[in-house]
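Anyone? Bumping this.
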Amino acid sequence: MSLVKMIEYQDAPPEVRAVYEDIMSVRETDWINNFWKALANDPATLRRVWDSVKQVMAPGALDPLVKEMVYVAVSATNGCEYCTCSHTAAARKRGMTDAMLMELLAVTALANETNRLANGLRIPVDPAFRPPA
Amino acid sequence: MSLVKMIEYQDAPPEVRAVYEDIMSVRETDWINNFWKALANDPATLRRVWDSVKQVMAPGALDPLVKEMVYVAVSATNGCEYCTCSHTAAARKRGMTDAMLMELLAVTALANETNRLANGLRIPVDPAFRPPA
Amino acid sequence: MSLVKMIEYQDAPPEVRAVYEDIMSVRETDWINNFWKALANDPATLRRVWDSVKQVMAPGALDPLVKEMVYVAVSATNGCEYCTCSHTAAARKRGMTDAMLMELLAVTALANETNRLANGLRIPVDPAFRPPA
Amino acid sequence: MSLVKMIEYQDAPPEVRAVYEDIMSVRETDWINNFWKALANDPATLRRVWDSVKQVMAPGALDPLVKEMVYVAVSATNGCEYCTCSHTAAARKRGMTDAMLMELLAVTALANETNRLANGLRIPVDPAFRPPA
Amino acid sequence: MSLVKMIEYQDAPPEVRAVYEDIMSVRETDWINNFWKALANDPATLRRVWDSVKQVMAPGALDPLVKEMVYVAVSATNGCEYCTCSHTAAARKRGMTDAMLMELLAVTALANETNRLANGLRIPVDPAFRPPA
Amino acid sequence: MSLVKMIEYQDAPPEVRAVYEDIMSVRETDWINNFWKALANDPATLRRVWDSVKQVMAPGALDPLVKEMVYVAVSATNGCEYCTCSHTAAARKRGMTDAMLMELLAVTALANETNRLANGLRIPVDPAFRPPA
């Protein structure tokens, strides 16, 4: 159903295999999900996007579970089925319970609601919410 | 510039004042931001939305700072200036640093990027990401 | 601030003036708003979009006020300031009160909320909601 | 396929059953659709969202059929399959014909088109469209 | 699964058949895709949308392949499965290779990413990017 | 007005200056626009996003002007003022005329329109548009 073919490890050129191996090593898993198999149609894009994901989702000022939950919130807002499912699975692996998922989506949905009240009424931003120049 | 007038406390009917007082009490502040002054044009909506915000944003399975950051991520995704500014301010009040804000937006932006790769290539969801029926 | 210049009636070529005159005649007004002055940079687009607006917004199976309100709901959802302001003004001219505007945005916002709960939880459509094939 | 399980009436705790009964009573129906069965994983969210839907969609300054059609317009704009199907069914039950549905989507689609012309050209809002301060 | 029935040529009234024939003639094909069969439920909408597509997608200041690729970029951004698939097929017919598709989606996705960094940080537009008034 | 401060060259740490110099060199210009000055609050993000932009927007299977126009189409669809203005300026520098901009936005807007007709009617994808598995 995909618009490009999925590139399996055994059919992949060396630069794709190198990324696949890095993914499996960083994630401590032994399989590659379809997202990467699709991007492998363009090895430079595969490498670039994986490097970005690896850098952005690593522990930093925010912990990785919070990052996965932000990812789910954005994906649900955009209606992306693939990313909603894959990042919900990733968040669960990091400890997200059903109660946390329900609360996460309640916040996500509420923000979508109030975004439209603010945008629809064209409410001016209070000066107090603007940082000093 | 707003499409409705801002209802100030001194001009507000009793049911609006009651909500304003609850907002100031729960938030331990002495002023009301424009979002609520705009909603006050419909006291039933003001009450309902405030009750939702109060319930959803309270501590629960997720901590309030995480919830504020999810709110910022959704508001940035939707391009809502008002909510981006107000919830960034709220998150900062709860301890979000500039480093955390930058990382939050890096995750938000990356999710917006990969959402379009997945949707544009119509990548099928891996069975492993689907919960058992 | 616009990315193209606004084409005023006195500076417009005949095919643009013809559209401007039709707009003023159909709308029973004596001025042209910026949306059309911007589209006039491409007379074929100006003509095509005006013909579409004239056809779609005319009385039909739905009454024109309902159509204007649907327009506001979509524009608020997309965060389009220009269309939110212009179609709110148009709806008010056709009788929309402040109470109706507030209710319209309450519905719009609620739909945006529940859209994300449905999409975020990937809730399957009930067979009863699908029309017979 | 859903990311959470559907909670059936017979498996539901009392506070969920109470909401289900209210839904069936208000809607004069004898079944519960999947949206509520999914929200029931968090009884507080189920109660809050149902109370919001009940309040917002009730007759008021706008009639319920208009509200259902606005709901369809927003859901189509956001690409939410579940809500598009469920609210189209609800609007049909209240009298929406195929001709009305086609016109509703023609308005929705046209608004999505002109929203991008206005946003893409960054067209300034005419002063006449702004309410007096 | 569609919310309206597909109108086949043999069941179509004359004004619908006339549009179908124009579509097949302009596109040099002998079949009609579902998009038009669905719009045919409202012959005036079918005629108007087809006339718009015919005008907008014709060779002009931009070549038709570029236009098809822009269409794919927008459809991927909005998560529209139907238009993503149909316009990817149309672009391929006009010469888009897999390498071009991958690059197109890389640009599309990157724009979605940086749009949220700019909107999330509320970065002011540099005066140099604004055309002289 | 931005939510973070703009980092000027003279105030920037060495790793930020290195990126700024690369930007000016690749773009053959002597100034840095606000987007990068805002990202500079997180040097790792600045470096990563610039490297992505440099790679993705370089000549490849698509020419750089087409890429800039796709960027404008996505930014207009998302309502991102900053990116709409900056990439319109970039596209003009590469040869985009007013006629090309108007056509680009006509395609962008039309795609946004038909996306909602397809999504709103839930039109099934024709098998002919699906690539062989």
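Late reply, but here is one note on the structure posted above: The mean pLDDT of chain B is 97.
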